[in-house]
Amino acid sequence: MNSAEKIMAKKEASRNRARNRFIGPALTYLLLTAGAVIFALPFLWMISISLKEPAEVALPGLNLLPKKAIWANYPKALTIMPFHLYLLNTLKVTFLSVIGTLLSSSIAAYAFARLRAPGREVLFFVMLATIMLPAEVMMIPRFVIFRGLGWYDTLLPLIIPAFFGSAFYIFLIRQFFLTIPSDLEDAAKIDGCSAFRTYWQIFMPLSKPVLVTVAVFSFVAHWNDFMTPLIYLNSVEKRTLALGLATFQDVWGVDIVSLMAASTAVLIPVLVIFFLAQRYFVQGVVMSGIKG
């Protein structure tokens, strides 16, 4: 093979490498785009229904684009139920539960990650085992306890359990705490910091990604919680938004247009919170799995 043929062969190999570098990412983005479209279809269908007339919804076929967007469906849906009252109850439950979850779960996670105590690992595995308990198993004992405390038909059963931690969140935060260098903790001890001060002034500021992740998880769980308010709330004025959506269903059927409009309005805060915290959310999940 002469020099000209070698040069041509190198150019061809270079073109093949460039082509392969392009095809791989292109296929990846194509698959991700297709997956995003599939996951977005239910949300787009919900918005489409919320902008249609009831007669158009009854037509056969899947028509995502309404013939005429009826924006008046949204104020109508929000006036069928006392939206402002349900929103206030939901905000109380959600934000207090998020605060309780962050405080209780992070304190327990710090103890499992950094404090030395006999039987610590056994207690940690027992705590993890509670994740396997179905929620239905604890439903009746919890109801009996809260009713005995006089908390039935109040927001307390929806808020107080968050201040006792969650096994999944404790595990997530503990895994992140294990990635923090022990030199920082040793320096704090030399400076005379107590265990609580080390946790509050060193570990918590360095753990913003995982704390945001837990906050997003907890926010979504409590914002969309339907079963717990259904069990413990009886008064209309104490209902949350998830329970208030049942207002659109009666013995004659379901007002599907108003239901979809109200559901879209209820979902918007969750989307906003997720997109604002997306960077910390991904970082927190990734960093929590680095060290076991």
Which CATH first-tier class of the largest domain would you pick? Mainly Alpha
Instruction: Please state the overall shape, judged from the principal axes of the Cα atoms.
Output: flat
Question: What's the mean pLDDT score?
Answer: 85
Give the class from helix and strand content and strand pairing.
Answer: mainly alpha
Total count of domains: 2
| CATH level 4 superfamily of the largest domain | MetI-like
CATH architecture designation of the largest domain: Orthogonal Bundle
Number of helices: 15
How widely separated are the two ends?
Answer: 56 Å
Q: Main β-sheet: number of strands, strand sense, barrel status?
A: 2 strands, antiparallel
Low-confidence stretches: none
The CATH topology label of the largest domain is MetI-like fold
SSE topology sketch:
Blueprint: H1 3-50, H2 54-57, H3 73-80, H4 83-114, H5 120-129, H6 135-148, H7 156-159, H8 167-177, H9 182-190, H10 195-206, H11 208-223, H12 227-232, H13 241-244, E1 249-250, E2 253-254, H14 256-276, H15 278-287
Helix pairs in contact: 1-14, 3-14, 4-8, 4-11, 11-15
Describe the structure.
The chain is mostly helical. It is built from 15 helices and two strands. It has helices at residues 3-50, 54-57, 73-80, 83-114, 120-129, 135-148, 156-159, 167-177, 182-190, 195-206, 208-223, 227-232, 241-244, 256-276, 278-287; strands at 249-250, 253-254. Strand 1 and strand 2 (253-254) form a beta hairpin. The termini are far apart. 25% of the residues are buried.
